[in-house]
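**Backbone shape codes:**
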Amino acid sequence: MKKIILALLLLVVSNTFAMELKQFHKNMYMVRGVDAMPSVENRGFMSNAYAILTKEGWVVIDSLSTPELSKEFYDELMKVKKVPVKYLIITHYHPDHWYGASTFKQAGATVIAHKKLNEFYNSPEAKMTLEASNQRFGGLYKNVKLIPADIEISDKKDLKVGEYEISIISMTPAHTNNDIVVFVKNDKVLFAGDLVYINRIPFAGDRGASSKNWLKVLNEMKNLDPKVILGGHNEPMDKKAIDFTYNYLEYTRNTIKKLKEQGKSLDEIKAYINQNSPYKNYVMYNVFNDANVYKIYNDLDLEDFE
């Protein structure tokens, strides 16, 4: 009986975190991760990845957390059409977007990312971070092989792939110091990485993050006038998601600044925001908000000297 129950539980977990390829726009596909931190149970499948089918082959945006997940994604794409993967574009260096890159590199893709991702790759910290993450999450990343970019983005690069005109644009610093977005001009579709959310709290606690510049970046993205926005998380979004993200960051920054000026300590500010924030019931608030407050609190001190 215990073996039967265990088998049923494993089946439920497997189905809960199964990968399903969905077409969200003509020739454009996605897989949707769960809203959670990575774990052995969810296989690290806690972010989205995307692909565009062009006349020249696939363009993939982000590669998921592990080679196992990215291989599943690749196999699903090949079921749609078995053509080469021309490019893999990594929106930033966080594990859920980058660590699965080896699958697509082995398949012959040219990897595109921000030049700061390559700087991180070439530093001792990249390997240390991978080892620490693997320990923290129970060996989840044991098969990860870090992959650098073949093409570095420092400002903007335009690609013509088949029938699609694609702009890859640096948007840094914001969520990290190596964010890029991918704008498909033909269809006004924006792949925004982790820069845009709706009804979900962004993570602004990365050491390379800048909430001040993130607000500017959001306005730049709005000026692109996208019809569809695809994030590293969430279902497909529209421009209201830019406003949601902007308003959360602006509220948090302004509240911290006001309370700092009143002489409140960091702990007092955290307590006030956790009690009064209009965002406290949104997804991932309990996971990310304290880290966001801590980072913004310290950044405000540095901004005073700018």
